[in-house]
Amino acid sequence: MGKGKIDLILSVFTLSLLVITSRADAQGLTEKQVKNFSYHLSFGDETVTLNDGEYEKGPPDYEQVRLDSFVIKDLNGDNEPDAVVILAQNSGGSGTFYEITALLSRGRDIVQTNSIYLGDRVKIEKLQVENKGVFPLRSGSKVARIRLDLLTHKETDPLCCPSKKESRCYRLSEDKLVLCSDNH
Questions:
Q1: pTM
Q2: Out of 15, 78, 172, 181, which residue is the most buried by the measure of CB atoms under 10 Å away?
Q3: Quick one: pLDDT band at residue 132, thresholds 50, 70, 90?
């Protein structure tokens, strides 16, 4: 095989790689981005950058934040992958404070929604996104429902051991995470 043919094959191969790479970059939100995002925390009102799902700051202002769970799926009906994320935060005491937030794809940008506090030392059992396309908003667009099954505390439960089963439903409304209402 001559040098010209080899150069042509290499050029076609390189071009193919460039096309595959740009398609991969254009696919939206990835697990790696979720695990390495700079999150604004509602509990403590600060921003931390996770590294592979973890953040830790040493004394004197100890703080640990970890990615408890997440689901990547289209949340707002724009056919781009978004994510619903549960974060757990501990500041050195016995409490671990949980919150739920969402990351929305905006082309190549990722935007965090508001966060909703879930509780201290709750136990997340299941997080899922239901994209059935049967939940129209008033504007006519489709929005997913986020279902969260967790254990919270009864009045008689010790803080270590929540036993009250709860199912909560969240959805996006004008790019804000809200509890579902019966009408939507």
A1: 0.78
A2: 172
A3: low
